[in-house]
Amino acid sequence: MKYTFPENFWWGSAASGPQTEGTYEGDQKGANIWDHWYAEQPEAFFDQVGPNRTSAFYKNYKADIQLMKQTGHNSFRTSIQWSRLIPNGTGEVNQKAVDFYNSVIDELIANDVEPFMNLYHFDMPMKMQEKGGWENRETVEAYVHFAKTCFELFGDRVKKWFTHNEPIVPVEGGYLYQFHYPAIVDMKKAAQVGYHEALASAKAIKVYHELNQGGEIGIILNLTPSYPRDENNPEDVKAARIADAIFNRSFLEPAVKGVFPTDLVDLLKEIDYLPVIEEGDLDIIKENTVDLLGVNYYQPRRIKAKESAEKLSDGPMPDDYFDNYEMPGRKMNPYRGWEIYEKGIYDILTNLRENYGNIRCFISENGMGVEGEERYINEDGRIDDDYRIEFVKDHLKYVHQAIQEGSNVQGYHMWTCMDNWSWLNAYKNRYGFIAVDLDNDCKRTIKKSGQWFKQMTDNNGFD
Ligand code: BGP
């Protein structure tokens, strides 16, 4: 069978500023929570490798954009680091950052690679975090100012903007499961943080639309379809529905429909954890929904009704409402511990079509991190990552099917272009189409998957 995609499909990859750029003497970047956390507690990071050791996009972007061309990109997503552009979170703009992002954007456009720009990828400026980060309402206003500054500086050329990447992750990581700074366990604060992120997104969308720059703005969500263990067991179904409300619909519904899910609101009300909402906020959220949606998909959630009485903390936690279980016979990526379930991508797209007005969307991340890829180097020095090609194909087949059935999908971005630094796993797992040799001045070599992607995108599909 031939899998052909719609004309002008966006093919490319995604990355983020904090994971690729690096920090340099004299670049005047301010610290963000990752720089701070690493300085404070390097042992929390894999191999004690911190965010300062990235693939050096700040220095290499011109050559990297050529590699994007060679690997068939017509679009590329990265993020503008708030702490690079406005080092203290508010106040002075760093001219060096303006020059850098201008040059990246111009270089992408000159090479026919459309820039997709995201504004927040887990990287709170430390000066803002000192005042509570997303817990504090002031951060919402500071973020909106940062967003407006970006639109005014770069919006004449950037026509695709995103307010957040995976806003649920700072909630989970920072306030529930302790894998992001400030790494505390407090579901009440988690609710406030999530609410402020959603409000900040709507406010940034409002500002963007008022500026009338002729582009579009969306949000990027990691959607994890939540499957009950037994579809005929109402308790399992109920548990899966709660997990879906907390981890998916918490941001999907306000972003697309302008309202929060009633079951989530009821749950928070019941435990007296509703966030502080100021007058007029809900109207702003209602009136400023997204133009398009980015969908990051890696893994599903397998849920069953609560069996164990085990509590993760003294206070309420999402896990009080459901248990996770391992699907028997599941396919795993053992390096990341994530289940690989290709049909999940189809289920998400079908859900968006049926329940979210068939919102225009694209796959904004999908990928496979593999440890020890050096063992696949062939005699020509290329990594033969056939497993990655299979992974992409297997997911694309389901994307194709959803499109055939009417889903409004406009593109597919792989995580990621070149191997980069990962929040807690540093360089353990490699995700790129292009290998980065850290011991050899970050030398880049296109992997087999990168060559395949070029061929596939030239044909706008594959057999
Ligand atoms: C997504 C993030 C990316 C990236 C990717 C891979 O959730 O948006 O920033 O890191 O996951 O995950 P990891 O690097 O943790 O293996």
Structure characterization notes:
This protein has 463 residues and is α/β, with parallel strands linked by helices. The protein has 15 helices and 19 strands. It has one domain (12-358): TIM Barrel, CATH 3.20.20. The mean pLDDT is 98. Bound molecules: 6-O-phosphono-beta-D-galactopyranose (BGP). 6-O-phosphono-beta-D-galactopyranose (BGP) binds next to loops. 6-O-phosphono-beta-D-galactopyranose is lined by residues 16, 19, 165-166, 222, 296, 336, 365, 369, 415, 422-423, 425, 429.
List the helices and strands and how they pair.
Layout: E1 3-4, E2 10-14, H1 17-20, H2 33-40, H3 57-70, E3 75-79, H4 82-85, H5 95-110, E4 114-118, H6 126-129, H7 137-154, E5 160-165, H8 168-175, H9 187-211, E6 216-222, E7 226-228, H10 234-257, H11 262-270, H12 281-287, E8 292-296, E9 301-304, E10 323-324, E11 331-333, E12 338-340, H13 343-355, E13 361-365, E14 370-371, H14 386-404, E15 409-415, E16 429-430, E17 434-437, E18 443-446, H15 448-458, E19 461-462
Parallel strand pairs: 2-3, 2-15, 3-4, 4-5, 5-6, 6-8, 7-9, 8-13, 13-15
Antiparallel strand pairs: 1-19, 9-10, 11-12, 14-16, 17-18
6-O-phosphono-beta-D-galactopyranose is lined by residues 16, 19, 165-166, 222, 296, 336, 365, 369, 415, 422-423, 425, 429.
